[in-house]
Amino acid sequence: MDDPYPIALQNAAAMPRTAVTEDGQYSDTEPHETDRPRNVNEDLDTYRARMVYQTRKRGTLETGLLLSTWMPRERIATMEREELQELERLMSVPEWTLFYWMSGKQRPAEDSEWASSSLLESLREHTSNKEKVVRKMPELQ
Question: Which domain holds residue 112?
Answer without folding.
Answer: 43-124
